[in-house]
Amino acid sequence: MKERKRNLSLISRKHLQATYFVAPPLMDIRKAKPRSKLLAFIKRLRIAIITKGGHVCIDFSNTEKLVASGTLLFVAELRRSISLAKHKTRVSCIPPKKRLIAQVFQQVGVFRLVGYRKKINIGQHDDVVHWCFATGHGAEGEKFDDILGNYDGRIATALSRKLYQGITEAMTNAHHHAYISPRQDGLLVDRQVRDWWMFSQEKDDYLHVVFCDLGVGIPETLPRKHPSIWQKLLETLVASNVDDARVIQEATKLEKSRTEQHHRGRGLGQMVKAVTENFHGSIDIYSNQGRYTVSAGRQDKLRNYESSILGTLISWTIPISKREHIYYAQN
Q: For residues 260 and 90, what is the distance between their CA atoms, to the nearest angstrom?
């Protein structure tokens, strides 16, 4: 206890001149309340890092749970903000009290981003060692191995091939179509960060793969890239019912990828079919305020939130097992 107090005292003196931002206890975008808190925190942090300058300290001491989708969104926003700050802002942190959270932050590079140099022993805990992270821009197929190379021989060749196609398609779409106009976050920046970010995590015999870009979002790109489909959607539905979730759903019905090149695969629709029909998994597609969920053997779900993630995040959940046939069951 004395050691802990001494460490906190040193931290307090070290960060005396900093502007503090307290991270939420839960990083999650699936449920409305934690989503709202996370996005509000990210917004404040983004503004401070990109426009204010000086010393920004992120206080993770109350963070108790990480969900892959919410955590990836936070990591993507943090990396983008630091990149746009051009060294005018120093970012530091107060580490989490919960050791498991600290281990994950070290594993996925958060501590390196904020200059926290104390070495954390990762250990062999399943909730830590199976987190993998990659980032890039464009269709960098070699990054697939960074995320899923460890699963060679553990997942079927057909599944590996479909995942490769889906992930490289997402990379291509992010590079060519996500960043077609300035981001609607209210900040004036002199350049765009056109990157994508990706996590994978294995837990309880399921493989979770999450992909994120911080572009304009599917509800903005569909009307511009496919005006005829957009017009048909407006004619079919009452204008007030054309919300973000429905636009995402419509985007999964496109027969060609957004690049209009057949060798790119069949875009979101191909991803959905491969994961849910072929491999009994589920896929969540978040874009701006909408969420479209497809699960094997279940009815599709549409949901809209009050707050926007200002981008697109795709989350695959796929069962992995030594058995030949295993069906996905959502909690």
A: 43
Contact 161, 104 (CB under 8 A): no
CA distance 314 to 157: 22
Q: Going residue by residue through the chain, which has 331 residues, state the pLDDT in tens, using 9 for 90 and above.
A: 444 444 444 455 455 588 999 999 999 999 999 999 999 999 999 999 999 889 999 999 999 999 999 999 999 999 999 999 988 899 999 999 999 999 999 989 999 999 998 887 766 666 666 788 889 887 776 677 777 666 655 666 666 777 777 788 888 888 788 888 888 888 888 788 889 999 988 888 888 899 999 999 999 988 888 787 788 777 777 656 789 999 999 888 875 544 444 333 346 777 787 788 777 889 999 999 999 999 988 899 999 999 999 999 999 998 886 443 333 333 3
69 contacts 28 by C-beta, under 8 angstroms: yes
pTM confidence score? 0.85
Pick the CATH number of 129-331 from 3.30.565.10, 2.120.10.30, 3.40.630.180, 3.30.70.20: 3.30.565.10
